[in-house]
Amino acid sequence: MDSDIINDMDKLETDAKHVLNQLSELSTFLASPEGVPNIAQAFDRPLEIMQKTMSFDVSVFYKITNVVENSLLLRVVRLSDPAGFRPDLYEGKRLQICLSSPDYKYINEAIAFETRSVSVVNVPGRGCDIMGFIYLPESFGGGYLFGGDFSGEQSKVKDYEASVCGIMCNYLSTILIKGQLEDLAINDNLTGLFNSRKIKEEVDRICRRFKRRADNCASLALCDIDHFKAVNDTWGHLQGDVILREVGGILKSSMRENFDVAGRYGGEEFLMVFDETDGATAFEIVERIREKIQTHKFTKIDESGARVKGKYISVTISFGIAENSLPEDGAAALGREEWISRADQVLYRAKKQGRNQTHIF
Fold it and tell me: pLDDT tens across 84-98, in order?
């Protein structure tokens, strides 16, 4: 047998054994209760295996931030590209990929997402040669993509490399669910505020307390970003995500510790709960928030997700406030649905009468 062929076979066998050894170490590391002090470190080891052990030039993690109609929205969470083969990618970069007709550079990202598996369509010297899907339940944030990229024209992914990528994705799915279970179960992935389920639980908690404390009073505010559909239609859903995230940041920074909580109620709607606060006080707090949003310079991004220097977007937001307390006639306090419904009614009035207003029930 030709010696070159023997050497190639030996190399393939050695590479596979080495990768399997690394995979075994990764499994032990991720399974250890104290082995992964934070989620970022769970990413670092697979990136190293993909690049150094499996000899890919680039390794990358994407967070799936949203799926809108035919568009897949991604954010680069981690990237290892020491030689700079992919200048189009950097940590924090946001991408919008057309699923039906993806750019050649991102064809495997689109296929991996749609098939929920590993894609190995080779685009030598151009796009990712391998990309895997890391599953997370939709309520936990929707998942990640993980893959590697060869730069050579003759690059080819071996079968065992595709299998290893799939195994690492399964490992990471398990550790992400384990590590983020509590956080992702209560927080909205985009804004960092409570998610819809958790903010409703907070409303229920306060409603139950009315049965124990007759002197209790609380208020909630339902708010909606004005003309948000026009933002998406004009500048795209990536820009819409930026605005949602920055609005969430303003709301979170405006909450009084130990008294107020805020959550993303749905789409561009947010719900804020002001404990031990009457309607008049809540109105003052909300008006300050409304004015802060009105004057805020929201980050403008281009189609690739890069920030446009010197350009900003202005948006406004409308609020509806409803107070809840025990009536003097001895009737029960409002339940969650009726309480939120009252705030929704006056929010609709604020929108109808010109927007960028705060109305109280």
Answer: 888 888 888 999 999
Listed range (18-32, 54-68, 110-124, 313-327) with the worst mean pLDDT = 18-32
Q: Any idea how long the chain is?
A: 361
The answer to whether residue 245 is domain-embedded is yes
Which residue type does 267 have? G
Give me 24's structure tokens.
């075994």
Task: Examine the domain organization and report whether 213 and 65 are in the same domain.
Answer: no
Instruction: Give yes or no: residues 114 and 200 share one domain.
Output: no
Partners of 360 in the β-ladder: 321
Mean local confidence (pLDDT), 175-200: 78
* Whether the predicted pLDDT of 127 surpasses 70: no
Residue 34 pLDDT class (50, 70, 90 cuts): low
Q: What CATH number is associated with residue 227? A: 3.30.70.270
Query: Annotated active-site positions, please?
Result: 268
Structural domain range at position 7: 3-181
Q: Which two tokens stand for residue 175?
A: 């550790």
Single-letter residue type at 61: F
Closest CA to 359 of 291, 276, 279: 279
In a domain, 191, yes or no: no
**How many domains, the chain?**
2
The residue among 158, 181, 204 that closes a domain is 181
Confidence of residue 305 (pLDDT cuts 50, 70, 90): confident
In a domain, 288, yes or no: yes
Q: Using CA atoms, how far apart are residues 10 and 296, in angstroms rounded to an integer?
A: 62
Asked if 165 and 217 sit in the same domain, the reply is: no
Give the model's pLDDT for residue 10: 35
How far apart are the C-alpha atoms of 252 and 134, rounded to whole Å?
29
**Cβ atoms of 139 and 175 closer than 8 Å:** no
Cα dihedral across residues 34, 39, 40, 44: positive or negative: positive
pTM over 0.70: no
Residues facing 40 on adjacent strands: none
Asked if the structure places residue 277 within a domain, the reply is yes
**Domain identity same for 22 and 156:** yes
Q: Say if CB 77 and CB 180 are below 8 A apart.
A: no
Residue 178 CA, distance from chain mean position: 17
DSSP letters, 60-76, are EEEEEEEEETTEEEEEE
28-42, 108-122, 341-355: least confidently modelled range:
28-42
